[in-house]
Amino acid sequence: MSLQETVSAERVHIAWFGRRNAGKSSLVNAVTAQDVSIVSDVPGTTTDPVRKAMELLPLGPVLMIDTPGIDDEGALGELRVARTNRILAETDIAVLAVDGTKGFSAAERELAEAFLKRSIPWILVFTKADLTEASVRDVRAAEGKALAAGADIPVLFTSAHTGEGIHELKETLGACARKPAQQKHIVTDLLSPGSIVILVCPIDASAPKGRLILPQQAVLRELLDEHHTAIVCQPEELTAVIASLRNPPALVITDSQVFGKVDAVLPKEIPLTSFSILFARYKGDLETLIRGAEAIDGLRDGDCVLIAEGCTHHRQCGDIGTVKLPAWIEKHTGVKPSYTFVSGGNFPVSPSDYRLIIHCGGCMLSEREMKNRLASAEDAGVPIVNYGVAIAHMHGILKRSLAPLDKSGINR
Fold it and tell me: What pLDDT does residue 294 have?
């Protein structure tokens, strides 16, 4: 996959925070060399987070997020500040922009504390350096180091007007990016070279017109990139496809909603898992989600269950989140819980009101945001499970679906 084709969830998320009129938007435009954000002398010009996917050397594919001023006022201002705070959950690198001519306020100190609490790498950038005298810069730098509470954070002085410090800021962003020790894989690290893998992708009313959904695309592309052979079929074709092969496939990966149907026709000696379970390993904490599945069995009538999806889409007849999952839960448990459905960025900050959370695979969320959601559930003492793990559990095939994630279980 080329850098231009990298989906937002796989990009480094760089978010820019600060007070109104601190120069955040001008700074974003200077770093990107594009008019990403509207710039004005009027405080509060940026009213909603502005997102721009781009390539930023030496980082590569990134997602820039310009946020509203953290000191916005009034009823609408409070909503904008709340939205800005939500951005923290998906931030890989934070840039705190402080007006060098004015210095710090309580709002900026709170932001710095939030970065430290969430272990978010951050950069302190004083803007309007062309208007800040040398003696004042020394004071600001000392204040910044004190604000970092002992953390070794970069402190820079920049000017969007003269270009001072912009190149240094780009280089610093690159240095702040956490590079994994080795490339992460969705599935190919579980396979022997040249494996044959069958992908079961049902095409029904909820399938997007003319394309595969993102987890299916991502797995297929990774298999091709690593020179494995991928065979794609619908559930009704699976038996015939397997019969046509000289040797059995190394692995069958299915959409979770047809887990039961695929398990029933697939010979037990052929390893089986789902796209959602693979993404649980790839972006989340599989052990936490497995523990969450056990909570399904303890549900009672009226218990509050949150069913959450990372993306927003038009729900079709037979939608997995709002229709199929509740039906499976009630059939499995014999009780009727109370359901709340959320999507996109509407995941609650503290989900303590719920007995159980069932989350989608998180293909549209960054790894940091998915793990933050898991942490929010854990902090609230609420079990959380994802679609694939929950469905496998309720169909009695969780053990089978997890076995392939042990590398020795599918290598031949």
Answer: 94
Which residues are CB-contacts of 312 (< 8 A; sequence separation ≥ 6)?
343, 344
Residue 106 and residue 30 share a domain: yes
Q: How high is the pLDDT of residue 377?
A: 94
Task: For residue 152, give the DSSP letter.
Answer: -
Can you tell me the mean pLDDT for 18-40? 77
What is the residue range of 194's domain? Answer: 188-277+400-409
Total-model pTM: 0.73
Do both 297 and 346 map to the same domain? yes
Percent of the chain with pLDDT over 90: 50
- Can you tell me the distance from the alpha carbon of 270 to that of 48, in angstroms, rounded to the nearest whole number? 49
> Could you give the CA distance from residue 65 to residue 120 in angstroms, rounded to a whole number?
15
What pLDDT shows up at residue 316? 55
Q: What is the DSSP string of 43-101?
A: TT---S-EEEEEEETTTEEEEEEEPPPTT--HHHHHHHHHHHHHHGGG-SEEEEEEETT
CB 384 within 8 A of CB 327: no
Q: Per the domain annotation, does 181 fall within a domain?
A: no
